[in-house]
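[Discussion] Sanity-checking designs against the backbone

I'm trying to build intuition for which residues belong where. Below is a structure token string of 161 positions. I'd appreciate it if someone posts a full sequence so I can compare it with mine line by line.
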């Protein structure tokens, strides 16, 4: 009986001391489509509610068309580049947030056909930014876009994953 009592006491004591209140549950009003993190920033792009921004120091901010100049409330993909800029893909194209203002490009402004499927967003260490599409790779570097495809670069296919 004594070993059973000691085991029960240890089990209860260990489980009580292992609990803490550092976890917080956030339930966004709309479904989350995409996530990215960089530095102290965690971004969740939603379907219909814009961006939920978590600062690992405890702050939480919402960016939507009602309270900011974000171009869409439905975010398909999201990424943070090496310079800390936020990039989002939405129905109208690609947008970048530099901490104070949004800049948006349509596929035509990037040099891509209007019906381009953007498969991935990726920032590079040199602060250039890449889009993998079904019409090649679009690269944002030195404040301008260029597109590499099968016809101009030797890519084996325009479909890039």
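Best answer:
Here's mine. Compare freely.
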């Amino acid at each position: 009986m004594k070993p059973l009592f000691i085991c029960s006491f240890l089990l209860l004591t260990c489980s009580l001391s292992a609990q803490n209140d550092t976890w917080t549950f956030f339930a966004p009003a709309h479904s989350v489509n995409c996530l990215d993190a960089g530095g102290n920033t965690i971004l969740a792009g939603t379907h219909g509610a814009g961006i939920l921004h978590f600062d690992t120091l405890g702050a939480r901010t919402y960016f939507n068309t009602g309270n900011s100049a974000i171009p869409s409330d439905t975010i398909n993909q999201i990424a943070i580049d090496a310079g800390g800029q936020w990039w989002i893909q939405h129905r109208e194209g690609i947008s970048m947030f530099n901490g104070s203002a949004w800049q948006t490009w349509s596929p035509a402004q990037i040099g891509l056909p209007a019906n381009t499927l953007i498969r991935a967003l990726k920032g590079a260490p040199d602060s250039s930014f890449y889009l993998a599409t079904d019409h090649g790779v679009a690269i944002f570097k030195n404040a301008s876009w260029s597109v590499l495809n099968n016809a101009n670069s030797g890519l084996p296919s325009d479909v890039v994953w």
